[in-house]
Amino acid sequence: MPDGPPAMDPPAISPPVFGPPALRPLPAAIFASRWLQLPMYLGLIVAQGVYVFLFLKELLHLVTHAAEFSEQQIMLLVLGLIDVVMISNLLIMVIIGGYETFVSRLGLDGHPEAPEWLGHVNSGLLKVKLAMAIIGISSIHLLRSFIELGTASTDTSLRYDQVMWQTIIHGMFILSAIGLAYVDRMGEASH
Question: Number of H helices and number of E strands within the chain?
Fold first, then answer.
């Protein structure tokens, strides 16, 4: 008889698990299909470059002809520049927020230049932010229409009709944004 405690089998060591568990083929294909959106986001980046070109072209036009333009013409050109910037901001929200929400994480946690809103973005919040950006763009277009209408020297009956419809559509954008924000708020309250 041996002295001391009885011999025990060594504990079974399970192999280390690296990464997430493997998916079955159909769920894996469905999950991987999110990458089909990548070319669309890259295309939006190209569109962003086109808007930068448009902004620079309009800015050059404003600067080179500033002495010839009236105050109202300058105001309309500046509103056009603001419109381009707001559309560009909308593109950034869709590119960054959409990619982060629907395709893959960007890995910007702790990055000093990461947008503040990106840390808590979800599809509901992204929809509300996009709706607010569209309202801002619509407001600029409506303001330009009001200014142009005030200076119209030709038949304005059609223009009044156009401005009326722009105002109605703008109001619908506002109601839609309020509805989206309400639904998003209800969703947060239920969690």
Answer: 6, 0
